[in-house]
Design brief:
The complex is a heterodimer of chains A (about 80) and B (about 550). In chain A, about 85% of the residues lie in helices and about 0% in strands. In chain B, helix 6 crosses helix 15 and helix 12 packs across helix 15. Chain B is globular, with a radius of gyration of 23 Å. Chain B has a single domain, classed as Sodium/glucose cotransporter (Up-down Bundle). Classes of the chains: A mainly alpha (about 80), B mainly alpha (about 550). At the A-B interface, helix 1 and helix 3 of A face helix 8, helix 12, helix 13, helix 15 and helix 23 of B.
Chain lengths: ~80, ~550
């Protein structure tokens, strides 16, 4: 479940980038900081890369902590059933 | 033709992967301007020597079919992660990305963002299941429960198509790069690359390939970090100041920092590029093959996670290097010819930047790193191509797995030799030609056919061989037709005024077509074979989740 929700979140953020580029170019070109040329588009792009990295790290951590022990338990159960069978 | 090709590449997303070769091919003055660089030759020679030693070392451990295809599954996760990074990031990704940002600004970064989003999704949805179900290749996984020769042949051919098309593009780029950097004749440069590919892969197999890709990834990342650090230091570690100078020097001015200067906010163009880049990642057989080089699914996941994190970092560096290049190289007459164009074309900007920041020493180092990068990518492709021929087609399709490992290994080596020679001949034949068509086709097949079939095979119970075959074949046909009707063939090669299909990548049409047709035909398929394939899903699903019941004799392709 976590895999699908995290994937969907990332795709949603990417869809935001597509919408920003296609339909909100004025907003994308806005410079939110005074005396700076850094645009909303640049901030969004960098945030998207950071989000991808964070989601990757989160998933890797979650899978190691939660998924692997669960998988191991299921494997043992399957092995047990097979030996009984 | 050459100048037309250059124009197309300079302004197309394909410049990301192959633009460099055509730009250089069309600019003879750049060859004269770039004298042979001793540092480059020294670093290049050291790289080749050390990789040959690695190959010799690996050859002493390569005593089986498993060792040849997957290094016996003994590669540590973080080694594999680094190698995946080395396998995926091609020289043209580095040169093309920075060159395109330098030329058109922000819009170019969409290509990188697609990749950055694609990798975590592959990590979460594909990596572990893929490792649990397959043994050597992409086809093993797609056809795990799908029966019949037609679907296996189709999957093997699309896999081989992606690999060979990619290989040709990379080889042409390699030939031009070596010609430019080392003042070698194009054909001799290609011959050198081919000989090295054959030696590395035939004798070193996956183990040598992995180590070469690791070394290359380390060098490329180190070079990228160095360039970024020196660039930032030049602007007092103030990214705002770097971007301000970049905007003032950039050909597109302040507009370079916002969308619109290249894709002109065209929704469909943006979507097709995004789809191709994001989902194409998940359909590249040479990258997917690397998941089998580790001991289990958890290790595959860790290696993909590590590779993804490295790539996220790398693509952040690309922003600094791309816009930094505009700031440093953009207004520097030393890097422009008399007409005001950048010497060697826009894709040379990263190398110009290296020279501007670190002199000939840095230029030489980066040039050699770029060569190492090309070599690492092409050997990965050659190995994946050999596996498609010897394992998917020869062993499993023709002999239904009844082939001795020794025999399959012999065919693999012969396949490497054949692929090397074919790639050499095609690369010589296509010198100076617009290779946009082959690259567009490769990426389109990966995103529009391989990805849908892989994801449906992994997750959708109702998928049948007939559905997959019809969906995949139709999408392949649609991709070819739409590329012919697109700018890269219809205008650039056939000389028409405007393209009938206005987008370079046909993914926006071909990918939904593949999904929809596969769905409809699979749902309508009431044959006994379809029932058996649906019934086999639960066993496949359990195995893909847990890796349990990993009985060698029951898995596809086991001989």
């Amino acid at each position: 479940m976590a895999t699908w929700s995290l994937s969907a979140s990332l795709l949603l953020l990417f869809a935001g980038e597509i919408v920003l580029m296609s339909f909100a170019s004025d907003l994308a070109a806005t410079t939110p900081f005074k005396d700076s040329v850094i645009t909303v588009a640049l901030l969004y792009a960098v945030a998207l890369v950071v989000a991808a990295a964070v989601i990757t790290a989160l998933y890797a951590w979650w899978a190691s902590e939660r998924l692997d022990p669960l998988t191991e338990q299921v494997r043992k159960e399957i092995a047990g059933e097979e030996s009984l069978g | 033709m050459a100048s037309r090709s250059r124009g197309i590449f300079a302004g197309s997303p394909l410049a990301l992967f192959w633009g460099a070769s055509v730009a250089w091919a069309s600019d003879d003055s750049s060859s004269a301007a770039q004298s042979t660089n001793r540092t480059a030759i020294l670093v290049f020679a050291a790289f080749v020597l050390s990789t040959l030693v690695m190959t010799w070392w690996a050859s002493r451990r390569m005593n089986s079919r498993d060792a040849f295809y997957t290094a016996g599954g003994h590669i540590p996760a973080w080694h594999n992660g680094l190698a995946i990074c080395g396998d995926f990031i091609s020289a043209a990704t580095f040169l093309g990305s920075t060159g395109l940002i330098f030329a058109v600004g922000y819009d170019a970064y969409l290509l990188n963002l697609g990749i950055v989003v694609g990798w975590p999704i592959m990590l979460m949805l594909v990596s572990e299941r893929f490792r649990n179900l397959g043994r050597y290749t992409f086809v093993d996984v797609v056809t795990y429960r799908l029966k019949g020769d037609a679907i296996r042949l189709q999957a093997a051919l699309t896999s081989l198509c992606v690999v060979v098309l990619y290989l040709i593009g990379q080889m042409i780029g390699a030939g031009k790069l070596i010609e430019l950097l080392f003042d070698l004749d194009y054909a001799i440069a290609l011959l050198l690359v081919t000989v090295l590919i054959i030696v590395y892969v035939i004798w070193g197999g996956m183990l040598a390939t992995t180590w070469i890709q690791m070394v290359k990834a380390t060098l490329l990342l180190a070079g990228g970090v160095y360039l970024s650090a020196v660039l930032l230091a030049r602007f007092g570690f103030d990214i705002g100041e770097l971007l301000r100078v970049s905007a003032s020097m950039h050909a597109k001015g302040p507009g370079s920092l916002a969308p619109g200067s290249w894709l002109h906010t065209d929704f469909f163009n943006i979507v097709t590029i995004a789809l191709t880049m994001c989902f194409g990642v998940m359909g590249l057989p040479h990258v997917l093959m690397r998941f089998f080089t580790v001991k289990d699914a958890a290790a595959a996941r860790k290696s993909v996670a590590f590779a993804t994190l490295l790539m996220c970092g790398f693509y952040l560096l690309i922003v600094i290097i791309g816009f930094g290049a505009a700031a440093v190289v953009g207004g520097n007459p030393a890097f422009h010819d008399t007409s005001g164009a950048l010497i060697g074309g826009d894709n040379m900007v990263a190398l110009h930047l290296a020279q501007a920041l670190g002199g000939n020493l840095m230029l030489g180092f980066m040039s050699a790193v770029i060569f190492a990068t090309i070599l690492a990518v092409v050997i990965g492709l050659a190995l994946a191509g050999a596996a498609a021929i010897s394992h998917d087609i020869y062993a499993v399709l023709f002999h239904h797995g009844n082939v001795s490992p020794k025999d399959e290994l012999r065919v693999s080596r012969f396949a490497v030799l054949t692929i090397g020679m074919v790639a050499l001949m095609l690369s010589v034949a296509f010198e100076g030609q617009n290779v946009a068509v082959v690259t567009a086709l490769a990426l389109s097949i990966a995103a529009s056919i391989n990805f849908p079939l892989l994801i449906l095979a992994l997750y959708w119970r109702n998928l049948t061989s007939r559905g997959a075959w019809l969906g995949g074949s139709t999408a392949l046909g649609a991709s070819i037709v739409l590329i012919v009707l697109s700018d890269s063939v219809w205008v650039a090669m056939l000389g028409n005024e405007t393209a009938i299909f206005p987008y370079i990548y046909p993914t926006i049409v071909a990918m939904p077509l593949c999904f929809v047709l596969t769905y409809i035909v699979s749902m309508l398929d009431r044959s006994p074979q379809a029932r058996a394939e649906r019934a086999a899903f639960h066993e496949q699903y359990a195995r893909s989740e847990t890796g349990a019941a990993d009985h060698a004799e029951t898995r596809p392709g086991r001989a």
